[in-house]
Amino acid sequence: VPYITRPRQLVRRAAILSSTVFAVATAAPALAVAAGCPTLPTTKPFASFGDTAAYELLSGGAFESGTTGWSLNGSVVANGNESYKVHGSADAKSLTIKATGTAISPSFCVDITRPTFRFFLRRTSGTWGVMNVAVRWTDANGGSHDTTVGSLNGGGSWSPSPVLALASSLPLWQAGSTINARIVFNPEDYGGAWAIDDVYVDPYSR
Ligand SMILES: [Ca+2]
C-alpha cells in the first residue's frame, strides 16, 4: 500500500508546485509595470564639465525639430545653439524665454532612478533677475504642484546649469513608483530674458 500512496503524494506536490509557478508567472506583468519608467538612449553630454553621468535627452530638449509637447508663453525657438553643442555638432537652435514668459516641458515619466536633471542656459538681456526652475507634478487627487528646484544666475555666455533635483523633489518612495512631471522655466519677471538648450535627465541606474 505505501508504494501506491507515495507516488500519489508526489503527484499532489507536483500539482501544488506547478500552481505556485503559475501564480508567479501571472504576477510577472504586474511586476514589470511596477519597474518604473521606460528606458531611453543615454549619452554623457556633461563629461567635459566633470560630470560623467549618463543622461537622457528630454523630449524636444534640444529644440532642433519643433516644440511638440512644450507649453510656451513668451518663448520661441531662435537661431543659435548652446555653444558646446553637446547634443550634436550640427545643432543650431535654442529656446529664448522673455522675462515675463514661461516655458514648460512636455510631461515625462519620473521614478526614483531619475534623481536629477541639467540643461544649458544663458542670459540674453538685462543684468538682474534669476531663472526660476520648478518641477510641476500632479498628486493622486489631481492637485497640481510646482516644486522650485533652482533660482539660477548666469551671464551672457552659455553655461551648464547646476545639477537640479528631480526625483527627490517628488513624493516617490518606492522602487516602482512613477510620477509624470514637467519642468517649468520661469524667468523672474522684468529681470531679463534667457535662453535654454539641451535639457537632460539623469537616469543614474545606467
Ligand atoms: Ca539646440
Could you write a compact summary of the structure shown?
This protein is an alpha+beta fold. It is built from 1 helix and 11 strands; from the N terminus they run αβββββββββββ.
Describe the structure.
By secondary structure, the chain is α+β, with helices and mostly antiparallel strands. The chain is built from one helix and eleven strands. Strands 1, 2, 3, 4, 5, 6, 7, 8, 9, 10 and 11 form an eleven-stranded antiparallel sheet that branches. Strand 6 (131-138) and strand 7 (144-152) form a beta hairpin. The model is unreliable at 1-33 (pLDDT under 50).
Order of helices and strands: HEEEEEEEEEEE
The average pLDDT is 86
- Terminal CA distance reads 60 Å
Oligomer: single chain
Share of helical residues: 10-25%
What's the β-strand tally? 11
Most strands sheet: 11 strands, antiparallel
Percentage of residues in DSSP E strands = 35-45%
Overall geometry:
globular
- Tally of DSSP helical segments: 1
Uncertain regions: pLDDT < 50 for 5+ in a row? 1-33
Radius of gyration: 24 Å
What hetero molecules are in the model? calcium ion
Pairing-aware structural class of the strands and helices?
alpha+beta
